[in-house]
Structure formats: C-alpha cells, structure tokens
Specification:
The chain is mainly alpha-helical and 457 residues long. The protein is built from 20 helices and two strands. The chain has one domain. β1 and β2 form a beta hairpin. It catalyses: a ubiquinone + NADH + 5 H(+)(in) = a ubiquinol + NAD(+) + 4 H(+)(out).
Amino acid sequence: MMKMVFSLVFLSLINIKLEVTYFKWYSVSVLVFACFFLVSLTPLSEMIKILSNWVVLDTMSISLILLSVYLVLMMVLSSINILNLNNFANLYMFMMVLLLLSLVLSFFSSNYLLFYAAFELSLIPTLFIIMGWGYQPERLQAGVYFMLYTLLASLPLLIMILSLSNNFYSLSMFNSLTNLFLFETNQYFAGLMFIMLILAFLVKLPMYLTHLWLPKAHLEAPVTGSMILAGVLLKLGGYGLMRIVGKTYFSLNMVGGLFLSLSLVGMIIIGLICCRLNDLKALVAYSSVAHMGLVICGILTGVSWGLNGGLMMMISHGLGSSGLFCFVNMIYERINSRSLFLNKGIIAVVPVFTLGMFLLCCSNISAPPSINLLSEISLIISVYSYDKLCMLLFPLGSFLGAVFTFYMFSYSQHGKFYLAVQSFLFNFFSELHILTLHLLPINFLILKNDLIFILFY
C-alpha cells in the first residue's frame, strides 16, 4: 500500500509538471481513475497502520492524501483558461506542485514539528494563488486576512509543541499527551494549555467566530484556490484535531463542551445568514463553515462514531464543495456575475448542467446515496451520546442547511433567463467531465465505506 501511494503521488507530480506546456485533460483523467482502482484493490488490513519514526500511513492519512491528489488533478482540469491563455502558467503550476507536496508531507508526518512545518508551508502557495490569480483588487485584503488568522492562531501551537519536546523528549504523534495535563496542579491552566494546542486547528477548520477569513478568501480566490481551500486545506485542521483529541481525553472533558456548543449554535446562525445571501460563491463558502461545525462536534465528542463521521464528512464535503465551486465558476466565466438575481433559468438552456447542480446539492444536504448521509448519521449518534440536549440544536442546523441549499438551487436554475444566459449553449465537454468526476466518488464510496472507518489507537 505504501508503494502504491508513493507511486500515485509521484506520477501526479510528474503529470502536473508536464501539463504546463501540453494540456491534455484526458491524461489527467487516467490518474483520477487510478485513485479509484488504488482504493478498490487495497485490502483493508493494509490500510490500518504502517508506522515509522517520521511517516505514518493509516486509514485517516491515506484517505486524505488520496483526496489531496484527486482534487489537485481536478484543479488542473478546471484551469484550462489559465493554461491556454498562458497567464503565468509555469508559476501557477509550480504553486500547485508545491501545495500538493506540502499537503502530502502534512498527512504523512508522524512528528508534531514536521507536521507544523508542512502545515505552515501550505499557506505560501495558497496565498500566491489567491493574490496572483484572484478576480478583484480586494484579493490583497483577503490574503492578509488569511495569513493573519492562521499565523496568529498557530503561534500557541508552536509553543505547545516546544513544551511537549521539553516534557517528553519526543515529538511523536503516538505518545500519550494526557500526562502533560494530568499533573498540572491548576485545572484551569491545564484547560488553557489544551485550548492553545487545538486553537490553530479550530481556526483552520474554521470554527464559528474564527471563520471571518474564509468567506473573504473564497470570494477573491480563483476557482482552483476555492477548490483547494474547501477541499483539502480545511481538512488539515480536522486531521490535526483528530490526532490531538485521542491523546488528551482528560482535557477534552474539561473544555470540549464549550467548543461543541459554540459549533452547534454557529451552524444555526450560519444557516440563517445563508438564507439571505445573493452571491452564489459566498453561499457555498458559508455552507463550508456549517459543515465543518458538524465535523468539530463529532471530533470533540471523543467517541469513535464521531471521529469516523468527521472523517467521512471531511471527504464528502471536500468533493461536494469543490464541485459546487466548479459549477459557480462555470457560470461566472460566461456571465461575469455570481448574483442570484442575474443567474436564472439555466435549466431552460442547459439541462445537463442543472442535473449536475442538483446531484451536488443533494450531496450537500446529505441525501442518499451520497457518503454524506452515512457521515451525518454517525455524527448524530456521537452528539446524542455526548448530551441528549444537543439534539435540540443539531437537527435545526441540518434543516437550515437543506433550506439554503434548495434556495440556491431553485433561484439559480429556475425562473426567466435573459440573453446572456444563452452563452451556456457553448459548453465544453471537459466541464461536464469535471462535474462527473466530482459526483462519482461521492455517490459510490458508500458501497465501500469500510475503507473510511478508522481503527483508533
């Protein structure tokens, strides 16, 4: 399994580099389907745990590495205009290769300091993609927000990593961190240390009240920036949180309820905000905050149902949200507007686009047969086992998610179109290909969901 993962990453990097001069989207598709065959042919026993001093390969890291490779290849497919117009294509591809390397290094590393270095390295290519190929001058402000939020929140994490090195003389992710908090005489100080340890991951996810950088970054980023932000970079926070929570169960009981309740209330507030937005891209970006609130709730319960549901939600949201951003970009490239008041009547012009949008919206509201349904059921079980009163808020948040998703679909697809929408008649096969490649894994992963269930250690 280890050789297969390394070979897939290596082939992807070579392919992305070659596509700079000769863009052949079907060659990228070969690598995309290689991801499917790699997952389907791998026995579950090989995906449990392969560990060394620096590298870890388990179900969680392998699934997120495959998601990273898959989405970066999707980014290449969706960047036809940048490559054909030669809009600094070489630099653009270099940033994508650097981003993929930093993501793979983050998910491979079993050392806290190495993970922190790769975690911060992923900010640089993302910042260049947002500021270099964004659409409006406000992208500079969005880049500043993005850097300040993530860097300031990750400084306490660095302090705690150095403290771990001083206490344990080892930075391995597989040492129990409970002793660091148990022997603190002051219980409140132990809770503060735990918050410092997980704050960077909560901002990265992002948790409600630390989410203000995300809509700004999404609105000003090009389609590839939005895809990688929603698809993989948010998952870095969930991955780090999962690695920490299992080792600090004592402190989780002290302060976990605070963040869990904040995420539940944040889901409802974000749902109400989405019901009054008229920007398609902003609506998809805010829905990411609501879905990541579900993930935070599942992880902070500390039970295996929540951790498994959180991982499945991260994978399904990475594919579904990336597909929605691709669809919004297809509309924007034709009409030069993301407003719901101008984008109407698409079903009358190109029904096949409406079908893709409908299936993506179904996955966004956790409708069967998408993997989102299984993940949300797991998360409901975990939250119910944590506290039955939470079930007063959890269904309301999910219901509001369905409300604003149907609001987005009905406003953009139905209604009377005007002449600019007729440019949809000139659609490209590659765009339908991208939408299909997002929909296939979402709806077929549920047939082999044992690959995503984690055996925690």
